[in-house]
């Protein structure tokens, strides 16, 4: 990935299939695409030991195998390793019950044979981006925590820069300036204070909210930047960015990244339970998710994107009022309206640059 500091083609891949022809086909497909570290096995009983030795970034796993089928392999991996290895199931089994069982056991994706080469490579690259971003965050967090005693201030400042830059990395996918996350995060902090959060919590909210759409890195441009209405399967794919973002941030112990994960996962939930990814309702949705929902929607509506024109302030406010008690928490809507002048000041202070 040029410019991101992450090279997915150096990722460690493990191919597991009992058919030598299938293994050779996958090895050639992946090698031709540029992947350099590919290991394979025909014996599913070796997977746990191979993973322990190689700590592979992604396992491409067949289901129908002797000795241990793919479900048994995933069960063994879950019992033996934490965090659970990333698994992409690649199988001729197309029945829905097989797909559901695989996903319940922790598979991150499911592709049926015969596979289409480009689709498989896109799915592999998306999973690796998510995995390697999370690994980079974990490594960086560990490195910084070792210096916390004598560099507390420097550690916090560095971590904030990483969060902001990763948030902007996702934002640049469909907004070239990245100013959306500046306006959205400052609005979120303002609303947090209005909703009774203390100063430390508001500061966390300011610095965690830029990560709300980090999961966009896993969504193909042809969907993310589509100018028209999504097809049903495209909309389902787009919805995955909330869970992808949470997966990237999972496992972090700091208050900042824990809140960032909570926001990434819940900022598309709706007060009436019709949101995604988990259909949470009312106060089941964390307060920070409810706050970021309205801050994100208002700024997105009033911003120009490659696929839409900016709405007027009046039209955006009308939509918020129409969705009071549906999409949005009524208490947060009230706080938003009470602080509208300050929110508009933020919008004006960090407006998009004018292009020739």
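Q: What amino acid sequence fits the structure above?
A:
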């Amino acid at each position: 990935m040029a410019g991101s500091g992450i090279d997915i083609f150096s990722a460690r891949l493990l191919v597991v299939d009992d058919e030598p022809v299938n293994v050779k086909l996958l090895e050639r497909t992946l090698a031709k695409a540029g992947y350099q570290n590919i290991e394979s096995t025909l014996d599913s009983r070796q997977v746990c030991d191979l993973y322990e030795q190689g700590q592979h970034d992604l396992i491409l796993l067949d289901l129908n195998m002797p000795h241990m089928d793919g479900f048994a392999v995933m069960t063994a991996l879950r019992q033996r390793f934490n965090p659970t290895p990333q698994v992409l199931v690649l199988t001729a089994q197309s029945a829905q019950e097989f797909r559901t069982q695989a996903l319940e056991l922790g598979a991150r994706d499911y592709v049926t044979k015969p596979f289409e080469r480009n689709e498989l490579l896109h799915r592999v690259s998306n999973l690796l981006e998510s995995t390697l971003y999370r690994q980079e965050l974990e490594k960086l967090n560990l490195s910084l925590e070792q210096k916390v005693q004598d560099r507390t201030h420097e550690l916090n400042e560095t971590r904030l820069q990483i969060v902001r830059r990763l948030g902007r990395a996702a934002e640049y996918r469909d907004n070239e300036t990245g100013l959306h996350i500046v306006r959205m995060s400052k609005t979120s902090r303002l609303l947090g204070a209005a909703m009774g959060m203390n100063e430390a919590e508001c500061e966390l909210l300011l610095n965690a909210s830029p990560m709300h759409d980090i999961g966009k890195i896993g969504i193909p441009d042809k969907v993310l930047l589509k100018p028209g209405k999504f097809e049903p399967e495209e909309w389902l794919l787009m919805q995955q960015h909330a869970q992808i973002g949470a997966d990237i941030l999972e496992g972090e112990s700091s208050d900042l990244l824990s809140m960032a994960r909570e926001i990434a996962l819940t900022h598309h939930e709706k007060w009436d339970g019709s949101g995604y990814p988990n259909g949470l309702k009312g106060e089941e949705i964390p307060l920070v998710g409810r706050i970021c929902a309205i801050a994100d929607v208002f700024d997105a509506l009033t911003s120009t994107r490659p696929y839409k024109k900016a709405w007027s302030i009046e039209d955006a406010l009308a939509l918020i009022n129409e969705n009071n008690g549906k999409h949005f928490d009524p208490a947060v809507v009230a706080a938003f309206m009470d602080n509208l002048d300050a929110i508009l000041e933020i919008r004006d202070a960090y407006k998009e640059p004018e292009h020739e």
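Q: And what stands out in the fold?
A: The chain has two domains: 8-130, 162-349.
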